[in-house]
Amino acid sequence: MKLFTVGPVACYPEVLEEMGRQMFSHRSDDYKRLHRETVALLQQLLETESQVFLFSSTGTGFMEGAVRNCVDAKMLCCVNGSFGKRFADVAASNGKTVEMLTAPLGEPIHADLLDDRLLRSRDVDAVAITHNETSMGVINPLQKLADVVKKHGKLLLVDAVSSMGGTEIKVDQWGLDVCFASSQKCFGVPPGLGMGSVSEAALKRSAAATNKGWYFDFTRWERYQRMEGTPMTSVIPQIAGLHRILTLIEGWGGKERYFETYRERNNRIRAGIQESGLTLFPKKGYESPTVTCVNAPRSVDGIEIYENMRDRGFELAKGYGEVQHKTFRIGNMGHIEFDDIALMLAALGASLAELDRP
Ligand SMILES: Cc1ncc(COP(=O)(O)O)c(C=O)c1O
Predict the structure, then answer these.
(1) Does 241 sit in the ligand 1 pocket, CB within 6 Å?
(2) Same domain, 225 and 325
(3) For position 356, what pLDDT does the model report?
(4) I need a surface site. Which of 111, 311, 334, 348 has the fewest CB within 10 A?
(5) Can you tell me the distance from the alpha carbon of 342 to that of 268, in angstroms, rounded to the nearest whole number?
(6) For residue 358, what pLDDT is reported?
(7) Nearest to 300 by CA among 319, 316, 321
């Protein structure tokens, strides 16, 4: 089966090989070296001097940590899909008061609307933004949104689960206080590791926070980071796998080159979709560089296309949430060759010819 999924995605063979090695203690010198180098590689990728933590959880753990450490009472969640909604749910379930700024499905959050909302909601402690809304295949204009949040002096918490490693993120220049992702998306590593940057301002807020729990207490993570470790057992195989892919990216010509490969994969998929006569779900100009969300033909359920493509040896992704039946999604994260894109598009053409009959 060739994977064009939205996570977990196909892993690089070099990553799987690295993860198959024998274990060692997470308090050993070997681990300390692995930890130190992986953090440095991630700091380079994200262009940040902030701390980068390696959580023994998926990205949602980091999301919960961001809420518990950085929000005293109230936050504003920008919602244009299921994962923005998840941020709001996580905050509410942790007893925070949540305001939402919502955009219609398929559309991004616009900076002027965020500015307007923050003028009226002056008492929020932080703003949450989903950089790449995987459910709708929409990328939000993070840099512009971050400018607005900084202008209002709020902490900015960014879910970059399906963008980090696949497209540019400049944590320090853009002013992102917490920016997290999961191993099983653009890095092409199996699930289980959440990684994220945490700014000085976020650490300061954490130091004053009460009722922030134990597992995701940023100040505890910072203490262990100084010892080149994690408070609990580190997910060593995933960290070793991440170290391997980040080193490979360096060897392939660096992050810009790697992002260019992502763009090229994405462009080829979009061009193929257009040639098949299909259209994209997101508003023009805001299409995700890592997940292509496609409108199913009027007479065909998106899930039928997903099932039919599985029978042909290609695992795409079903539509999500409210547009589950009207769309289907094609991921371009992880280990994907250009030749496989051509084969997948040919199979999609055959699938549509079979299913889309008047
Ligand atoms: C944008 C976004 N946020 C959060 C998540 C949840 O990540 P995890 O399952 O790693 O906790 C996902 C997973 O698909 C996602 O795409």
Answers:
(1) no
(2) no
(3) 78
(4) 311
(5) 8
(6) 65
(7) 319
Ligand 1 pocket, residue 51 CB under 6 Å: no
pLDDT in tens, 132-168: 999 999 999 999 999 999 999 999 999 999 999 999 9
Are both 273 and 311 inside the same structural domain? yes
The answer to whether residues 193 and 288 belong to one domain is: no
Q: Please give the number of the atom of ligand 1 that sits closest to the Cα of 163.
A: 1
Q: Per residue in 163-178, pLDDT tens? A: 999 999 999 999 999 9
Of the residues 210, 234, 251, the one at which a domain ends: 251
| Ligand 1 atom nearest residue 134's Cα | 16
**Is residue 333 included in any domain, yes or no?**
yes
Q: What ligand 1 atom has the least distance to the C-alpha of 130?
A: 1
What is the count of structural domains for the chain?
Answer: 2
Which domain covers residue 74, as residue numbers? 13-251
Q: Please give the model's pTM, rounded to 2 decimal places.
A: 0.98
**Structure token pair of residue 193:** 């590791």
Nearest protein Cα to ligand 1, atom 12:
161
Query: In this structure, are strands 132-133 and 138-139 parallel, antiparallel, or unpaired?
Result: antiparallel
DSSP state of 226: H
Range list of H helices, 49-177: 59-70, 82-93, 111-120, 142-151, 171-174
Same domain, 214 and 261: no
Q: Specify whether the CB–CB gap between 358 and 299 falls below 8 A.
A: yes
* Whole-angstrom distance, CA of residue 77 vs CA of residue 85: 8
Please give the structure tokens belonging to residue 255.
Answer: 């992050």
- Residue carrying structure tokens 């990216």: 249
What are the tokens at 284? 């023009």
Q: Is the CB of 69 under 6 A from ligand 1?
A: no
Q: How far apart are CA 314 and CA 12, in angstroms?
A: 17
Q: Answer for the pair 142, 130: CB distance below 8 angstroms, yes or no.
A: no
Tokens of 275: 């040639």
